[in-house]
Amino acid sequence: MEFPDKEQATLTVLGAGAWGSALAELAGHNGHKINLWSRRLGNTLEEAVEGADLIVSAISMKGVAATAGKLQEIGIPDHVPIVTATKGLDAESTRTPSQIWEQDFPDHPIVVLSGPNLSAEIERHLPAATVVASSDLGAAEFAQRLFASSLLRVYTSNDPMGTELGGTLKNVIAIASGVCDGLQLGINAKSALLTRALTEMIRIGTHLGGQTETFFGLSGLGDMLATCNSALSRNYRVGYGLAEGKTLEVILQELGSTAEGVNTTNVLIAIADREKIPVPISRQVYRLLNNEINPEEAVEALMERDLKPEFHEES
Ligand SMILES: NC(=O)C1=CN([C@@H]2O[C@H](COP(=O)(O)OP(=O)(O)OC[C@H]3O[C@@H](n4cnc5c(N)ncnc54)[C@H](O)[C@@H]3O)[C@@H](O)[C@H]2O)C=CC1
Ligand SMILES: O=C(CO)COP(=O)(O)O
User: Gene3D superfamilies of this UniProt entry (predicted)?
Assistant: First the structure.
Protein backbone atom coordinates (compact mmCIF):
# COMPACT_ATOMS: atom_id res chain seq x y z
CA MET A 1 0.00 0.00 0.00
CA GLU A 2 0.97 3.68 -0.43
CA PHE A 3 2.15 5.72 2.51
CA PRO A 4 1.88 9.51 2.63
CA ASP A 5 4.82 11.42 1.17
CA LYS A 6 4.23 14.47 3.38
CA GLU A 7 6.95 16.97 4.16
CA GLN A 8 5.61 17.03 7.66
CA ALA A 9 4.25 13.71 8.95
CA THR A 10 2.87 13.19 12.43
CA LEU A 11 4.68 10.60 14.54
CA THR A 12 3.59 9.24 17.88
CA VAL A 13 6.51 8.06 19.99
CA LEU A 14 5.58 5.79 22.89
CA GLY A 15 8.18 5.88 25.66
CA ALA A 16 10.08 9.03 26.58
CA GLY A 17 13.17 7.31 27.98
CA ALA A 18 16.65 7.56 26.48
CA TRP A 19 15.76 5.87 23.18
CA GLY A 20 12.26 7.27 22.68
CA SER A 21 13.56 10.80 23.26
CA ALA A 22 16.47 10.30 20.83
CA LEU A 23 14.16 8.90 18.13
CA ALA A 24 11.73 11.77 18.66
CA GLU A 25 14.58 14.22 18.23
CA LEU A 26 15.80 12.52 15.04
CA ALA A 27 12.37 12.69 13.40
CA GLY A 28 11.83 16.22 14.76
CA HIS A 29 15.15 17.22 13.20
CA ASN A 30 13.59 16.23 9.83
CA GLY A 31 10.69 18.60 10.44
CA HIS A 32 8.08 16.04 11.48
CA LYS A 33 5.53 16.65 14.18
CA ILE A 34 6.09 14.51 17.27
CA ASN A 35 3.56 13.42 19.86
CA LEU A 36 5.56 11.92 22.69
CA TRP A 37 3.78 9.68 25.19
CA SER A 38 4.93 8.14 28.43
CA ARG A 39 3.29 7.21 31.68
CA ARG A 40 4.98 10.17 33.34
CA LEU A 41 4.19 12.94 30.82
CA GLY A 42 0.57 13.18 31.89
CA ASN A 43 -0.99 12.96 28.40
CA THR A 44 -3.32 10.08 27.48
CA LEU A 45 -2.59 7.38 24.91
CA GLU A 46 -5.77 8.44 23.06
CA GLU A 47 -4.46 12.00 22.69
CA ALA A 48 -1.00 10.80 21.69
CA VAL A 49 -2.12 8.56 18.79
CA GLU A 50 -4.69 10.95 17.34
CA GLY A 51 -3.80 11.90 13.77
CA ALA A 52 -0.66 9.72 13.72
CA ASP A 53 0.84 8.73 10.36
CA LEU A 54 3.24 6.38 12.14
CA ILE A 55 3.54 5.03 15.69
CA VAL A 56 6.94 4.27 17.21
CA SER A 57 7.29 2.18 20.36
CA ALA A 58 10.47 2.67 22.40
CA ILE A 59 9.06 1.26 25.62
CA SER A 60 11.08 -1.11 27.80
CA MET A 61 10.20 -4.76 27.21
CA LYS A 62 8.32 -5.04 30.50
CA GLY A 63 5.77 -2.45 29.33
CA VAL A 64 5.19 -3.59 25.72
CA ALA A 65 2.42 -6.17 26.13
CA ALA A 66 0.37 -3.95 28.46
CA THR A 67 0.76 -0.85 26.27
CA ALA A 68 -0.06 -2.75 23.07
CA GLY A 69 -3.16 -4.14 24.84
CA LYS A 70 -4.29 -0.64 25.91
CA LEU A 71 -3.73 0.71 22.42
CA GLN A 72 -5.73 -2.17 20.95
CA GLU A 73 -8.69 -1.17 23.15
CA ILE A 74 -8.35 2.46 22.06
CA GLY A 75 -7.86 1.60 18.40
CA ILE A 76 -5.56 3.37 15.93
CA PRO A 77 -6.28 4.76 12.47
CA ASP A 78 -6.44 2.11 9.70
CA HIS A 79 -3.16 0.92 8.18
CA VAL A 80 -0.93 3.18 10.33
CA PRO A 81 2.44 1.37 10.60
CA ILE A 82 3.83 0.52 14.02
CA VAL A 83 7.61 0.75 14.39
CA THR A 84 9.04 -1.22 17.30
CA ALA A 85 12.44 -0.15 18.65
CA THR A 86 12.43 -2.25 21.85
CA LYS A 87 15.22 -4.83 22.23
CA GLY A 88 13.98 -7.63 24.45
CA LEU A 89 11.90 -10.78 24.94
CA ASP A 90 8.62 -10.95 26.86
CA ALA A 91 9.13 -12.74 30.18
CA GLU A 92 5.68 -14.37 30.14
CA SER A 93 5.17 -15.37 26.53
CA THR A 94 8.84 -15.43 25.36
CA ARG A 95 7.67 -13.45 22.30
CA THR A 96 9.60 -10.62 20.66
CA PRO A 97 8.11 -7.09 20.72
CA SER A 98 7.19 -7.28 17.01
CA GLN A 99 5.32 -10.55 17.61
CA ILE A 100 3.32 -8.85 20.37
CA TRP A 101 2.46 -5.86 18.17
CA GLU A 102 1.61 -8.15 15.26
CA GLN A 103 -0.75 -10.26 17.35
CA ASP A 104 -2.62 -7.18 18.64
CA PHE A 105 -2.59 -5.31 15.30
CA PRO A 106 -2.78 -7.94 12.54
CA ASP A 107 -4.02 -5.38 9.98
CA HIS A 108 -1.21 -2.89 10.54
CA PRO A 109 2.28 -3.11 9.02
CA ILE A 110 4.87 -3.80 11.73
CA VAL A 111 8.39 -2.41 11.24
CA VAL A 112 11.41 -3.28 13.41
CA LEU A 113 13.99 -0.51 13.92
CA SER A 114 17.34 -1.77 15.21
CA GLY A 115 21.04 -1.07 14.83
CA PRO A 116 24.18 0.11 16.62
CA ASN A 117 22.50 3.13 18.17
CA LEU A 118 23.84 4.11 21.58
CA SER A 119 21.42 6.92 22.39
CA ALA A 120 24.02 9.07 24.18
CA GLU A 121 26.02 9.33 20.92
CA ILE A 122 22.88 10.03 18.88
CA GLU A 123 21.96 12.81 21.29
CA ARG A 124 25.40 14.37 20.60
CA HIS A 125 24.50 14.32 16.87
CA LEU A 126 27.30 11.89 16.06
CA PRO A 127 26.63 9.99 12.81
CA ALA A 128 25.02 6.55 13.02
CA ALA A 129 23.23 3.96 10.88
CA THR A 130 20.27 1.73 11.55
CA VAL A 131 17.90 -0.76 9.88
CA VAL A 132 14.14 -0.66 9.42
CA ALA A 133 12.82 -4.13 8.62
CA SER A 134 9.38 -5.28 7.64
CA SER A 135 7.58 -7.84 5.49
CA ASP A 136 5.82 -4.72 4.11
CA LEU A 137 8.55 -2.98 2.10
CA GLY A 138 6.41 0.14 1.62
CA ALA A 139 6.09 0.57 5.39
CA ALA A 140 9.85 0.06 5.88
CA GLU A 141 10.57 2.67 3.20
CA PHE A 142 8.10 5.06 4.87
CA ALA A 143 9.97 4.73 8.19
CA GLN A 144 13.27 5.10 6.30
CA ARG A 145 12.11 8.42 4.79
CA LEU A 146 10.92 9.76 8.15
CA PHE A 147 14.12 9.00 10.05
CA ALA A 148 16.93 9.27 7.48
CA SER A 149 19.10 12.40 7.70
CA SER A 150 22.73 13.44 7.76
CA LEU A 151 22.68 12.21 11.37
CA LEU A 152 21.22 8.78 10.70
CA ARG A 153 21.68 6.56 7.65
CA VAL A 154 18.71 4.20 7.47
CA TYR A 155 18.73 0.91 5.54
CA THR A 156 15.67 -1.24 4.80
CA SER A 157 15.46 -5.01 5.25
CA ASN A 158 12.83 -7.67 4.61
CA ASP A 159 13.87 -9.67 7.69
CA PRO A 160 12.14 -8.20 10.76
CA MET A 161 12.77 -11.29 12.92
CA GLY A 162 16.51 -11.41 12.20
CA THR A 163 16.81 -7.64 12.66
CA GLU A 164 14.97 -7.73 15.97
CA LEU A 165 16.81 -10.77 17.34
CA GLY A 166 20.23 -9.31 16.48
CA GLY A 167 19.54 -6.27 18.67
CA THR A 168 17.99 -8.39 21.39
CA LEU A 169 20.47 -11.26 21.65
CA LYS A 170 23.55 -9.05 21.56
CA ASN A 171 22.50 -7.57 24.91
CA VAL A 172 23.29 -10.94 26.52
CA ILE A 173 26.66 -10.93 24.79
CA ALA A 174 27.30 -7.32 25.90
CA ILE A 175 27.03 -8.56 29.50
CA ALA A 176 29.60 -11.30 28.72
CA SER A 177 31.82 -8.72 27.04
CA GLY A 178 31.67 -6.45 30.07
CA VAL A 179 32.77 -9.38 32.23
CA CYS A 180 35.64 -10.09 29.82
CA ASP A 181 36.87 -6.48 29.97
CA GLY A 182 36.20 -6.16 33.70
CA LEU A 183 38.40 -9.20 34.35
CA GLN A 184 40.99 -7.71 31.94
CA LEU A 185 41.21 -10.93 29.94
CA GLY A 186 42.77 -9.20 26.91
CA ILE A 187 41.98 -8.71 23.23
CA ASN A 188 42.52 -12.35 22.24
CA ALA A 189 39.86 -13.46 24.69
CA LYS A 190 37.49 -10.67 23.66
CA SER A 191 37.88 -11.49 19.95
CA ALA A 192 37.25 -15.18 20.62
CA LEU A 193 34.23 -14.37 22.78
CA LEU A 194 32.57 -12.07 20.24
CA THR A 195 33.26 -14.35 17.28
CA ARG A 196 31.86 -17.41 19.02
CA ALA A 197 28.96 -15.31 20.30
CA LEU A 198 28.03 -14.34 16.76
CA THR A 199 27.87 -18.05 15.86
CA GLU A 200 25.63 -18.57 18.89
CA MET A 201 23.37 -15.64 17.93
CA ILE A 202 23.02 -17.02 14.41
CA ARG A 203 22.17 -20.50 15.74
CA ILE A 204 19.36 -19.15 17.93
CA GLY A 205 18.28 -16.42 15.54
CA THR A 206 17.87 -18.68 12.52
CA HIS A 207 16.07 -21.29 14.64
CA LEU A 208 13.57 -18.59 15.57
CA GLY A 209 13.10 -17.48 11.96
CA GLY A 210 15.80 -14.88 11.19
CA GLN A 211 17.99 -15.00 8.07
CA THR A 212 21.70 -15.79 8.54
CA GLU A 213 22.95 -12.79 6.54
CA THR A 214 21.00 -10.36 8.73
CA PHE A 215 23.20 -11.27 11.70
CA PHE A 216 26.28 -10.13 9.77
CA GLY A 217 24.67 -6.72 9.22
CA LEU A 218 24.15 -3.56 11.27
CA SER A 219 21.50 -5.01 13.58
CA GLY A 220 23.60 -8.10 14.38
CA LEU A 221 27.38 -7.80 14.20
CA GLY A 222 27.11 -4.00 14.01
CA ASP A 223 25.15 -3.65 17.24
CA MET A 224 27.29 -6.29 18.92
CA LEU A 225 30.44 -4.27 18.16
CA ALA A 226 28.87 -1.08 19.54
CA THR A 227 27.48 -2.46 22.78
CA CYS A 228 30.28 -4.95 23.50
CA ASN A 229 32.91 -2.21 23.29
CA SER A 230 31.32 0.77 24.98
CA ALA A 231 30.82 1.79 28.57
CA LEU A 232 27.80 3.73 27.25
CA SER A 233 26.06 0.36 26.99
CA ARG A 234 24.14 -0.45 30.13
CA ASN A 235 24.34 -4.18 29.43
CA TYR A 236 28.13 -3.96 29.10
CA ARG A 237 28.19 -2.08 32.41
CA VAL A 238 26.22 -4.89 34.07
CA GLY A 239 28.91 -7.39 33.05
CA TYR A 240 31.74 -5.04 34.00
CA GLY A 241 30.20 -4.48 37.43
CA LEU A 242 29.82 -8.22 38.02
CA ALA A 243 33.51 -8.70 37.18
CA GLU A 244 34.33 -6.01 39.75
CA GLY A 245 32.50 -8.10 42.35
CA LYS A 246 29.38 -5.92 42.63
CA THR A 247 26.00 -7.59 43.08
CA LEU A 248 23.43 -7.36 40.29
CA GLU A 249 21.10 -5.43 42.60
CA VAL A 250 23.72 -2.73 43.26
CA ILE A 251 24.64 -2.50 39.57
CA LEU A 252 21.02 -2.05 38.49
CA GLN A 253 20.46 0.52 41.20
CA GLU A 254 23.51 2.48 40.03
CA LEU A 255 22.35 2.27 36.38
CA GLY A 256 18.90 3.65 37.14
CA SER A 257 17.65 2.72 33.66
CA THR A 258 16.86 -0.28 31.50
CA ALA A 259 19.41 -3.11 30.96
CA GLU A 260 17.29 -5.48 28.85
CA GLY A 261 19.98 -8.16 28.70
CA VAL A 262 19.22 -9.35 32.24
CA ASN A 263 15.63 -10.34 31.48
CA THR A 264 16.56 -11.41 27.93
CA THR A 265 19.11 -13.90 29.30
CA ASN A 266 16.48 -15.57 31.49
CA VAL A 267 13.94 -15.76 28.66
CA LEU A 268 16.56 -16.94 26.17
CA ILE A 269 17.59 -19.82 28.42
CA ALA A 270 13.92 -20.84 28.77
CA ILE A 271 13.64 -20.87 24.96
CA ALA A 272 16.97 -22.69 24.52
CA ASP A 273 15.93 -25.39 27.01
CA ARG A 274 12.49 -25.74 25.42
CA GLU A 275 13.86 -25.90 21.86
CA LYS A 276 17.10 -27.73 22.77
CA ILE A 277 19.39 -25.09 21.25
CA PRO A 278 22.98 -25.11 22.56
CA VAL A 279 23.86 -21.63 23.90
CA PRO A 280 27.13 -22.06 25.83
CA ILE A 281 28.02 -18.37 26.23
CA SER A 282 24.51 -17.21 27.10
CA ARG A 283 24.22 -20.09 29.58
CA GLN A 284 27.28 -18.90 31.48
CA VAL A 285 25.82 -15.38 31.54
CA TYR A 286 22.60 -16.89 32.92
CA ARG A 287 24.43 -18.82 35.63
CA LEU A 288 26.40 -15.70 36.58
CA LEU A 289 23.31 -13.46 36.74
CA ASN A 290 21.52 -16.05 38.85
CA ASN A 291 24.39 -16.38 41.35
CA GLU A 292 25.19 -19.97 40.40
CA ILE A 293 28.84 -19.17 39.56
CA ASN A 294 31.31 -16.30 39.78
CA PRO A 295 32.93 -14.54 36.75
CA GLU A 296 36.14 -16.61 36.93
CA GLU A 297 34.13 -19.84 36.97
CA ALA A 298 32.18 -18.68 33.90
CA VAL A 299 35.44 -18.19 31.98
CA GLU A 300 36.75 -21.57 33.16
CA ALA A 301 33.54 -23.31 32.07
CA LEU A 302 33.82 -21.86 28.57
CA MET A 303 37.51 -22.74 28.22
CA GLU A 304 37.02 -26.32 29.37
CA ARG A 305 34.20 -27.27 27.01
CA ASP A 306 34.63 -30.35 24.79
CA LEU A 307 37.06 -29.80 21.93
CA LYS A 308 35.46 -29.62 18.47
CA PRO A 309 35.85 -28.24 14.94
CA GLU A 310 35.26 -24.48 14.65
CA PHE A 311 32.37 -24.92 12.23
CA HIS A 312 30.20 -27.56 13.76
CA GLU A 313 26.45 -27.99 13.38
CA GLU A 314 25.66 -28.24 17.07
CA SER A 315 27.77 -25.82 19.08
N1 LIG B 1 19.14 3.74 25.05
C2 LIG B 1 19.62 3.22 23.96
O3 LIG B 1 20.75 3.51 23.56
C4 LIG B 1 18.80 2.28 23.14
C5 LIG B 1 17.75 1.57 23.69
N6 LIG B 1 17.05 0.67 22.94
C7 LIG B 1 15.94 -0.10 23.50
O8 LIG B 1 14.84 0.78 23.72
C9 LIG B 1 14.08 0.32 24.85
C10 LIG B 1 13.94 1.46 25.84
O11 LIG B 1 15.23 1.79 26.28
P12 LIG B 1 15.59 3.20 26.95
O13 LIG B 1 14.76 4.28 26.37
O14 LIG B 1 17.04 3.33 26.87
O15 LIG B 1 15.14 2.92 28.46
P16 LIG B 1 14.70 3.97 29.56
O17 LIG B 1 14.77 3.22 30.84
O18 LIG B 1 15.45 5.24 29.41
O19 LIG B 1 13.16 4.27 29.19
C20 LIG B 1 12.19 3.26 29.21
C21 LIG B 1 10.85 3.82 28.78
O22 LIG B 1 9.88 2.76 28.85
C23 LIG B 1 8.78 3.20 29.65
N24 LIG B 1 8.20 2.07 30.38
C25 LIG B 1 8.83 1.23 31.21
N26 LIG B 1 7.95 0.34 31.73
C27 LIG B 1 6.75 0.66 31.20
C28 LIG B 1 5.43 0.13 31.36
N29 LIG B 1 5.20 -0.90 32.18
N30 LIG B 1 4.42 0.69 30.64
C31 LIG B 1 4.65 1.73 29.82
N32 LIG B 1 5.87 2.29 29.64
C33 LIG B 1 6.89 1.75 30.33
C34 LIG B 1 9.39 4.22 30.61
O35 LIG B 1 8.38 5.09 31.13
C36 LIG B 1 10.34 4.95 29.66
O37 LIG B 1 9.62 5.90 28.90
C38 LIG B 1 14.83 -0.88 25.41
O39 LIG B 1 14.23 -2.06 24.91
C40 LIG B 1 16.24 -0.72 24.85
O41 LIG B 1 16.90 -1.96 24.69
C42 LIG B 1 17.35 0.47 21.63
C43 LIG B 1 18.38 1.17 21.02
C44 LIG B 1 19.18 2.12 21.73
O1 LIG C 1 21.03 -1.20 22.09
C2 LIG C 1 21.78 -0.31 22.36
C3 LIG C 1 22.70 0.31 21.36
O4 LIG C 1 22.45 -0.14 20.08
C5 LIG C 1 21.84 0.22 23.75
O6 LIG C 1 22.57 -0.65 24.53
P7 LIG C 1 22.29 -0.74 26.10
O8 LIG C 1 20.84 -1.06 26.26
O9 LIG C 1 23.20 -1.85 26.55
O10 LIG C 1 22.66 0.58 26.70
Answer: N-(1-d-carboxylethyl)-l-norvaline Dehydrogenase, domain 2 (1.10.1040.10), NAD(P)-binding Rossmann-like Domain (3.40.50.720)
